[in-house]
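Sample pair:
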Amino acid sequence: MKPLQTSSGDLNADRRADYAEMLFASGDQAAAAELLLGALELAPQWAMGWFRLGEMQEAAGRADLAAQAWMTSLKLDPADRQGAALKLQLIGRRPAATAPPSAFVETLFDHYAETFEEMLVGKLDYRLPDVLDAIIRQAEPGRFRLALDLGCGTGLMGERLRPIVDRLEGVDISASMLRKARAKGIYDALTKADLQRFSYPGEKADLVTSADVLIYIGALEGMVGTVAGLLADGGLFVFSVESLVDGGDFALQPSRRYAHSDSYVRRILEANGFSILTLKPTTIRQDRRQPVNGLAVVARKGHTA
């Protein structure tokens, strides 16, 4: 992942860090790490610098030094905007968690908001909103009275929903993403909220969508239970997950996204009173020129006759 472009606050440290990035890009990870460590001697409170040092040490094959750098980053920034805890989990130096730090998700999408659509659609061949739009129309032809687009981002899913929805509301953790969505003028209301702690005081919806969002949640029990409470009887929950093929319910991937198994998705939906109408294998996007496989799901609140 591209490092966050944050300054250390010290011009000389920033210059050394920039040179370290040049060395890293050239393939000399060990020398890059040594140079960045020198920059951190000038700016020892720079949490992002320590996180980046961990990435460089990991690339150089120095797992112990990477862990030390990430633990320092986490100590300096307990909210963990860098996602150091996830990196520590991936190398077995921290217990597995059921969700990422909320501050990490918010910071990630605030950082990428300006180039989000260009990168995701233009370079990573992201077509999931089209896939979900097609299975919604197949499951429920006609219009919806109220749709909630959870994790709406810049409004890619909302653009597909607008023609078939009377009222469309979006929710996202990132203020920068919401600004992009607001500029499109497609939502009747937009709300900034953490979906892990989300509640909705309005009337029951007949459609809830969450496109490429549950990958940043992990354990789905709370989220699916929340959605069940948002929906009117007979309403649709339409979402995607990345596919877990190695066994288990869900797992953190090297991308720092979560993947979920088919059986886990089915079990959680059924436990919350949903019947599955569609569970379709699909390609979510490309990642490092490889397809990211996932599931596109339509579930109805209340079991079909």
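The longest strand covers residues 274-287.
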